[in-house]
Amino acid sequence: MSNSSSEDKLNICFLGDAAAKHLQRWSKYFVDKGHQVHIITFNSNILPDYEPFMVNLVSKRFPNPNHISRFLSLFPMLMNLRKIIKQIRPDIIHVHSASGYAWSAMLTGFHPLMITPWGNDVLIDPHKSKLAR
Prior knowledge:
Elements: E1 11-15, H1 21-32, E2 36-41, E3 55-57, H2 67-88, E4 92-96, H3 100-108, E5 113-116, H4 120-123
Parallel strand pairs: 1-2, 1-4, 2-3, 4-5
Helix pairs in contact: 2-3
């Protein structure tokens, strides 16, 4: 029989949509196992029942959906994302979605990095744009 020690516990950072029930289930699972969990999200519509200290919002400087606004907001968002990751000091980042969240995580240069696709990001979105493909 093995006893869990604090050495067995991870500091996990999930990067994804905090308005998604799926991400909330993943984070709750690891919290219930005794791990330290942080969420970084770009969506200000955060589901209830997260512990307040868990969720870090990286707001979009230019929230309009056009390509120019997205490009202009990329650098400040990445700088903010890097700052939060440095403060959290995670053992691993687990990204939920192989789209914008994954690209943002990869551009921070943090490792180890794990990406879990959700479906649309690999089955539907690539048919909508060359960038997604």
